[in-house]
Amino acid sequence: MKKFTKEHEWISLEGDVATIGITNHAAHELGDITFVELPTIGNQASAGEVLTVVESVKAASDVFSPVSGTICEVNQELEDNPALVNESPEEEGWICKIKNIDSSELDDLMEESKYLAYVKTL
Questions:
Q1: Taking Cα atoms as reference points, which of 110, 93, 92, 109 lies closest to residue 101?
Q2: Which pLDDT belongs to residue 55?
């Protein structure tokens, strides 16, 4: 199951661990990504709060956490290859994983069809 935010983050839940990244739309809008600040493992993330920063040739952009929980893994590949976010934003270019999430917060997020309709209005 994958859900989306209006700020262009995606979340995919597998068991009790959520994988988070930015959407294809966000990666395209940012242009060539040059740096991804990886969050710190063990830190608490709060829904709607800044999780990390992604920098591109155009701008630096905050990435917000779709849910609250504990950061349990980061995508180390992004340190040497931040362009992976452009190449595969919703698969290989994931940013971090969060455990102990508040699953009730998933109800506030959009299904893919609603997100795609939302993007068309921008």
A1: 109
A2: 97
